[in-house]
Amino acid sequence: MQDPLLSQALNLHPWNLDQVLDDLNEFGFALIDDVYSNDYVRTLAHECTSHLAEFRAAGVQNGVVSHIRSDHILWINGQLPLAQQHIQTLEHLSQALNQAFYLGIKEVEAHFACYNAGEFYALHRDNPQQKNDRMISTVFYLHEHWQDDWGGQLRLQDKNGQWHIIQPLANRLAIFQSDLLHEVLLSKQQRLSITAWLRSGHSIWHG
What we know:
Helices cover 23% and strands 31% of the residues. By secondary structure, the protein is α+β, with helices and mostly antiparallel strands. It has one domain: Jelly Rolls (Sandwich), CATH 2.60.120.620. Strands 1-11-8-13-6-5-2 form a seven-stranded antiparallel β-sheet. A four-stranded antiparallel β-sheet has the order 7-12-9-10, with no helix packed on it. The chain has a two-stranded antiparallel sheet with strand order 3-4. The longest helix is centred in the middle third of the chain and has 21 residues, at 81-101. The protein is globular, with a radius of gyration of 16 Å. Its cofactor is L-ascorbate.
């Protein structure tokens, strides 16, 4: 069943919202393939790559270097109109998640992420011990194609303790609870994505 709110987002392909909600409830994560039209993904990827010179090392905060990640990021704002369309899709999705799970999601924060060859993000949680208001994490993959031996997979432990290896396939959206343990395995090719968090004023998961 396609939610009418989601249909309002430009370039959005039909996908099964009921299945997404069922998977989130049972496993804490869900995957959606072929999210957008190919034309939109290509133009979005171009918007990303045309700003690569503005990316900064994500592992450097206030001059302190983190050793758990080596990717580069660019926060998304009003100067990136194509990426804003993706954020609008996530805002519509947030409404459906609020209705299903009473998450109280109020906003979306997002950045482009670039993993160059040799870069990674070690095991972590986006909302460790519910210390921030990130409720749902999402990753949308932008590169044109991806081979299994290029690495860069999302390795994630679901809410039942089972581990999954998620391939970063083009035009795929991964959605998961922000308190789940996960990592990005070392990439052997340039890996492009939009990482976004659906944020709430409180941190209670009803799944």
